[in-house]
Write a structure and sequence with these properties.
The complex is a heterodimer of chains A (347) and B (327). Chain A has 347 residues and is an alpha/beta fold. Chain A has 2 domains: 3-180, Thiamin diphosphate (ThDP)-binding fold, Pyr/PP domains (Rossmann fold), CATH 3.40.50.970; 194-320, Rossmann fold. Helix content of chain A is 36%, strand content 20%. Chain A has 11 helices and 14 strands. Chain A has helices at residues 6-20, 42-46, 58-70, 89-102, 132-137, 149-161, 209-222, 241-251, 266-278, 309-320, 338-346; strands spanning 3-5, 24-28, 51-53, 74-81, 111-117, 142-144, 165-171, 178-180, 194-197, 202-206, 228-232, 235-237, 254-261, 287-291. In chain A, strands 3-2-4-5-7-6-12 form a 7-stranded mixed beta sheet, sandwiched between helices. In chain A, helix 4 links the parallel strand 4 (74-81) and strand 5. In chain A, helix 3 packs parallel to helix 4, helix 7 crosses helix 10 (309-320) and helix 8 (241-251) packs across helix 9. The longest helix of chain A has 15 residues, at 6-20. Helices cover 47% and strands 9% of the residues of chain B. Chain B has a single domain, classed as Thiamin diphosphate (ThDP)-binding fold, Pyr/PP domains (Rossmann fold, 3-Layer(aba) Sandwich), CATH 3.40.50. In chain B, the strands form 2 sheets. A 5-stranded parallel beta sheet of chain B has the order 1-2-3-7-6, sandwiched between helices. Chain B has a two-stranded antiparallel sheet with strand order 4-5. The radius of gyration of chain B is 19 Å and the shape is globular. Classes of the chains: A alpha/beta (347), B alpha/beta (327). At the A-B interface, helix 3 and helix 4 of A face helix 5, helix 6 and helix 13 of B.
Chain lengths: 347, 327
């Protein structure tokens, strides 16, 4: 099968869905000149009416999407970094999420908010966050976090066709990654987890970039005879808890990994849902891995806050009741500067 | 633009209908029939009635909490029974009775109300995008209060709509109080409409007690918007006669809101002013005016009786679950 980059997969989904449905348009700061390559060719094909360059005005970008959705359109807001959603949280948490509900459930608000999440690029506290905990916490918002080019395309097409507000997060470190994506049309339903690696000893539930990190750790621990199953929920709302619980019932041990701040985070929610459904199957207390309860510092300091491969290995050792530490090698450290990566992307 | 006699009478009928409905709501709140609250708009009728009575059915209107939008939604065609039933939590209410007091009806171009005030500006901008892309000449009329126009969301929406020449009319319903604070305490200038200059849109100040003045200003802006010339900003100076919300202590009679000020404004009651004007012009006879009063009273009392008898939602839990997501 052909291999394409993650951002090319996003680009294909946008291209296909905007061709398929003329009510779909995209709006954002620098929407026509989006630097990651996700909007390549859009303005040439669809014009400035459907690829709108907004002012630096996050509430107006997302709020106008809610208004246009009420008016019969299917807007997509590309917010670039998820941190930039914060100035528009009234529009996201109140307007997008609650307008339909607050008016008796008669309206449709089909819109997509796209944003890059995550750290490991040294960008500091307001350019490195993962906001999945806030979004998952808010009733009325669906949340997709694809981790491969295949998932990126299939989930974005589903998001655009959904009649509800969908937040679509992708990790910055995925921008240049490649993966298999078929030529032919496909979509991926929401609420269906993907078992990214089969295993029998420990279940690791991971989201976003943590899926890739967990797979790296799993491959290293395989050499020591530890067989890890890695589950990627792909959408956190709706959450496919059944697939997770089925895996836990099989392995009896679970580690949950999410890059967002640990306190009140996704790991706590998924862990509690497992306890509610499969407590009697657990042979060890659930372990979770996430960011320390600190803002994310800039530069190399961030590694003391963000989850590291060794944290996943340590948690795995704990659920297995091992006395000795499972040391793993950190993968090649991701120290690229955003500008370098973007430069590569343009070549 | 010049109104015919029947059109003037229609404006008057709407002024009276809004006033009577407001009175019914106040009474209902004190009778314990409204579990949430009511923010009376008495004194401010001319703004919504003047702006909305002659809009197209497919034009969009955003209202604010003042009067829970009745001076806009009644002229736009919403039935008073649906409004009262929503306040009573009845299944026949605009939102099935679950919203507290929201009115929404997309068929009549009414998308609803933002709980955080000032949330409607950016949504209006989006409705303007939809209207422009559809290309059928629809216009968005966004009517919010003086306090709300201090939100940053207006700045962002004004830039977006002016830059893209979206078909929007921004109306400031300036009743000179932000809840319990007089405007001189929080706004540095005499007229909010002066902001328009900075956005490159027309700005105008009108007497918000004069329904014809409001109508003419809004109609001019609506035509400009339909012609693709972009947004305008209209400030209507008005005054609320009652408290911020019924049953809540107000600052009436204090240094912040002197009783004499209230009395002066009550002499400029928009319903009385317009009736006197129509009687003087001969557009209305006293007997006609009395009949309009009677009919509006009957209409609102009948709506209240029907809403009282209407059923509650049969299965609230299922209703709420279905309200979260659309299929």
């Amino acid at each position: 099968m052909r291999q394409i980059r993650y951002t090319e997969a996003i680009n294909e989904a946008l291209m296909e869905e905007m061709s398929r449905d003329e009510t779909v348009y995209i709006i954002g700061e620098c929407a026509t000149a989006e630097p990651m390559g996700a909007h390549k060719g859009l303005v040439e094909k669809f014009g400035k009416d459907r690829v709108k360059d907004a002012a630096l005005s996050e509430p107006a970008i997302i709020g106008s999407c809610v208004g246009a959705a009420l008016g019969g359109y299917r807007p997509i807001a590309n917010m670039r970094f998820s941190d930039f959603i914060i100035p528009a949280l009234d529009e996201v948490i109140h307007k997008a999420a609650k307008w339909r509900f607050g008016h008796g459930g008669k309206q449709k608000i089909p819109l997509v908010i796209i944003a890059a999440i995550g750290g490991y690029i040294g960008a500091g506290p307001e350019h490195s966050q993962c906001l999945e905990s806030i979004i998952m916490h808010t009733p009325g918002l669906k949340l997709a976090i694809p981790t491969t080019p295949y998932d990126a395309k299939g989930l974005l097409k589903t998001a655009i066709r959904d009649n509800n507000p969908v937040v679509y997060f992708f990790h910055k470190l995925f921008i240049g990654t490649k993966g298999e994506v078929p030529e032919e049309e496909y979509t991926i339903p929401f609420g269906v987890a993907d078992i990214k690696r089969q295993g029998k000893d420990v279940t690791v539930v991971a989201t976003g970039y943590m899926v890739q990190m967990a797979l790296g750790v799993a491959n290293q621990l395989q050499e020591r005879g530890i067989n890890i199953e890695v589950i990627d929920p792909r959408t956190l709302e709706p959450l496919d808890i059944d697939t997770i619980v089925a895996s836990v019932k099989k392995t009896k041990r679970v580690v949950i990994v999410d890059e967002d701040t640990l306190q009140c985070g996704v790991t706590g929610e998924i862990g509690m849902q497992i306890v509610e459904r499969a407590f009697d199957y657990l042979d060890a207390p659930i372990q979770r891995v996430g960011s320390a309860n600190l803002p994310i510092p800039g530069g190399f300091f961030e590694r003391y806050v963000l989850p590291q491969p060794q944290d996943i290995a340590d948690a795995t050792g704990k659920v297995l009741g091992l006395k000795e530490r499972l040391s793993v090698m950190a993968p090649e450290r991701q120290t690229f500067h955003a500008s370098e990566k973007l430069h590569l992307e343009q070549k | 633009m010049k109104l015919k006699k029947e059109q003037k009478v229609k404006l008057y009928i709407n002024l009276v209908r809004v006033r009577k409905l407001d009175e019914v709501m106040v009474k209902a709140l004190f009778a314990g029939k409204i579990p949430s609250f009511f923010h009376s708009q008495q004194g401010q009728e001319a703004v919504g009635v003047g702006a909305c009575t002659f809009l197209r059915k497919d034009d969009y209107v955003y209202y604010s909490h003042r009067g829970h939008g009745i001076s806009k939604t009644l002229p736009k065609g919403v039935s008073p029974r649906v409004i009262i039933a929503e306040h009573y939590g009845k299944s026949t209410g605009s939102c099935g009775g679950m919203s507290g007091f929201h009115t929404a009806d997309m068929e009549l171009g009414i998308p609803g109300i933002s709980g955080t005030l000032g949330g409607g500006f950016v949504l209006s901008a989006g409705m303007g995008i939809a209207a422009m892309m559809k290309g059928k000449g629809q216009v968005v009329v966004c009517i919010e209060g003086d306090g709300t126009y201090c939100r940053g969301t207006f700045h962002e929406a004004a830039i977006m709509t002016a830059n893209w020449k979206l078909p929007i009319v921004w109306v400031i319903e300036n009743n000179q109080y932000m809840t319990f604070t007089p405007i001189c305490e929080y706004y540095p200038m005499e007229n909010i409409a002066d902001l328009a200059f900075g956005y490159g849109m027309p700005g105008i100040v009108v007497d918000g007690q004069d329904v014809i003045a409001v109508y003419e200003a809004v109609q001019t802006a609506v035509e400009r918007a339909r012609d693709g010339e972009g947004p305008s900003l209209i400030e209507c100076k008005t005054y609320r006669f009652r408290s911020h919300a019924e049953g809540i202590p107000d600052i009436k009679g204090t240094e912040l809101r002197p009783q004499e000020e209230i009395e002066i404004w009550k002499k400029r009651d928009p319903v009385n002013l317009f009736r006197e004007r129509l009687l003087k012009e001969g557009a209305l006879k006293q007997a006609d005016a009395d009949q309009i009063d009677r009919e509006a009273t009957e209409e609102m009392e009948e709506a209240e009786r029907l809403a009282t008898a209407d059923p509650m939602a049969a299965d609230p839990e299922t209703f709420l679950k279905r309200a979260l997501y659309s299929n």
